[in-house]
Design brief:
mainly beta; six-stranded mixed beta sheet; four-stranded antiparallel beta sheet; about 0% helix
Length: about 110
Amino acid sequence: DVQLVESGGGSAQAGGSLRLSCAVSGQIDVYQCMGWFRQGPGQERETVARIYRASGWTNYADSVKGRFTISRDGTRNTVYLQMNSLQTDDTAMYYCAACGSEYWGQGTQVTVS
């Protein structure tokens, strides 16, 4: 089993920054890829960014390239999403998940005004 707990969401003004964290525990070694996903009001869920825990390889949605950075800590059990130059379109519930798995966090709300 895998547990994921997000934190760091909140409100920000356009142009501001927020940093999301995802604490991962359990049998995480099975899952090399971790990702941040979001779902805005009335929108479908989209992949924001992904990272491979061992290699550090990353990729991003076009809408966040150059503004968001996904990273992991030295233990590879915490995944971060640094969000800069926030836009109102970034308003959404953000989720951390092990890619392709059924393991998702509870989500953290980000509101940009």
